[in-house]
Amino acid sequence: YRESEITPEDIEKYRYLYDTFSEIFVGWDMAKVQDQSILSVFGRRKDNLETLQLIDIQQLRGDYHYQAMCVSIVAQLVSARKVGFDNTGVGAAVKDHLDQTKIAGRCIPVNFNNKTKIPMYTNFRTMINRKQIWLPDTDLDDEMMASLDWPDISKQIFKQITSLEYNPIAQRIQAKPGEYDDIPSSFLCAIEAAKNKKQRSGFVLLGRG
Fold first, then answer.
1. In angstroms, rounded to a whole number, what is the distance separating the alpha carbons of residues 72 and 82?
2. Is residue 194 a contact partner of residue 22, using CB atoms and an 8 Å limit?
3. What local confidence, expressed as pLDDT, does residue 138 receive?
4. HEC string of the chain?
5. What is the rounded average pLDDT of the residues 107-119?
6. What are the tens digits of pLDDT across the range 127-139?
7. At a CB cut-off of 8 Å and minimum separation 6, what does 175 contact?
8. Mean pLDDT computed over 66-93
9. Whole-Å CA distances, 73 to 102, 127, 174, 196
């Protein structure tokens, strides 16, 4: 797809998601190393509006302008209500790229700093413990693992979430040395987008914010 080529018929192909979900949200974490940027898609379940379920996760490659176009295309195809994106570090500059897309009006900047990150991750762990966040099992069989776009996705999710630790000297939550936190950061962006504004169910029409 190209953003300019998306049609209402293309969007209609993903309408089946709304049999299960009332709203869909996208999270995008931009890594300093561009091929480690993560896009995640979460849906608010109709049978429990307090629960967000991971629908898809993608590892984005290419420059940030290209990635912004990819985020816009995914958000339009699944009719995402809001798109949360990391607005710190390299993310601050990426906002200019998102402003050039058709989803500019749906984008929510998420600021990660020592003051905000701790309560965000605390809330994230609480939601997981309360089963308000549904993630894939970490013991998927080989056949199912092979069918995923990212073969070891469930293991990567588990590894990155469990690698987070509190650094009392720096007074911040961070990944252990040699590990990454791009996946949970992307999740937080989607969760913050979902918290930002709860709206009624329904499709977002092409080109509308």
1. 11
2. no
3. 46
4. CCHHHCCHHHHHCCHHHHHCEEEEEEEEECCCCHHHEEEEEEEEECCCCCCEEEEEEEEECCCHHHHHHHHHHHHHHCCCCEEEEECCCCHHHHHHHHCCCCCHHHEEEECCCHHHHHHHHHHHHHHHHCCCEECCCCCCCHHHHHHCCCCCHHHHHHHHHHCEEEECCCCEEEECCCCCCHHHHHHHHHHHHHHHCCCCCCCCCCCCC
5. 86
6. 988 889 988 754 4
7. 160, 163, 164, 165, 181
8. 89
9. 9, 29, 31, 21
Model-level pTM?
0.82
Contact yes or no for 166/176 (Cβ under 8 A): no
Pair 90, 66: CB distance under 8 Å: no
In tens, the pLDDT along 3-27 reads: 888 899 999 999 999 999 999 999 9
pLDDT at 200: 41
Identity of the residue numbered 126: T
